[in-house]
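[agent] plan:
  1. take the single chain provided in the ticket
  2. run structure prediction with default settings
  3. attach structure tokens to the ticket
  4. add a short note for the reviewer (M.T.)
[agent] executing step 1
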Amino acid sequence: VAPAELQKDEADDTQAGQEEAFTPPPPEDPELNINHPYYDVARHGIIQLAGDDSSGRKVITFSCCRMPPSHQLNHTRLLEYLKYTLDQYVENDYTVVYFHYGLKSLNKPSLKWLQTAYKEFDRKYKKNLKALYVVHPTNFIKILWNIFKPLISHKFGKKVTYLNYLSDLAEHLKYDQLNIPQEVIRHDENLRRKQKGKLPPVVKVPPPRPPLPTQQFGVSLQYIKDKNKGELIPPVMKETVSYLKSKGLQVEGLFRRSASFQAIKDVQKLYNQGKLSSTTASNSGGVLLTFLRPPPQPLLTFDCYDHILGITSVESCLRVTRCKQIIQGLPEHNYVVLKYLMCFLHMVSQESIYNRMTASSLACVFGLNLIWPSKGTASLSALVPLNLFTELLIDFYTNIFNSRTVPGEVLP
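[agent] step 2 finished; step 3 output follows
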């Protein structure tokens, strides 16, 4: 029965496809180089990095409408590219948003390909996938789910959420960071028009309140320094690093196993009120990562972004020297805080036999929390240089940070 229903669903798609021709892919990512190992697939923009969800986890989107007809896209290469992309981020928790609209008979992968894809995404990929949002599901998705149900574990099934409208994403993700294809937006508008009744009223967001004197999150390093008698290292960083150094260095999966979103929010609130230090390795690790992400400017500053992206074009033997040159240009305060953090992460990497967090693993977790572009979010093609740069800072900490000292700086 299922295959017959799938054929009917494909026929419906074909009819819909006659009304709307395949849309060419968007302009290529300017950071995407023709020497990229999967340039033939990556240039379509099917898979993209899209900011954070409401728990601070990185979001990866998959847009079916950007898939060209099957004869123009090697689906085996698409699967390899998807794995290649996730390999750069699966060390940390992540979320996937799947935009189903635009999957038609002319670009739809075979059932055999889908089965292969599910089997190839082993525990490494499924473990840290915390949520899979399927936007604009159709009968095809629901039928497919029933076909694959015997293969899908109950635990994985609980991670899947169907969303009928784009607005439903807002409660789970930072919606404004998503790079949603225009075709998907138009489709959503058409669905809304067909929906009976009035659209829900727009909720007015109250203006932001001024930060507390004890505020630690979402304010600049300068603000924290001014409110803490000129101390260069923010109290939240000093306390979490101190705790992790004494009790967390040999905790397996440190930074990979995050505490619950609510637990992190509770600790954040108390820190902002000047009350608390965190009490567990997962809390402290999560709090440290959360602290790095929200400030108005990243620790490595927007000015460094393009320079860091160029690290992969530098000869291997010269990369450490290039890293040193880049960070020498940082403002004094940013340099001191970065040095403090890298000193600690170097310690963590030295205990990787116990905690399984090598410099490479730590770079995957921290890279995008140290630097991001001034507009929009980092693209997938930026992940490799950003992670490589961070890995070099951790691995060659002593060499890179040995030539610049600042009065009053402290180390873990």
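[agent] step 4 note for reviewer: The chain has two domains: 1-197, 221-401.
[agent] ticket updated
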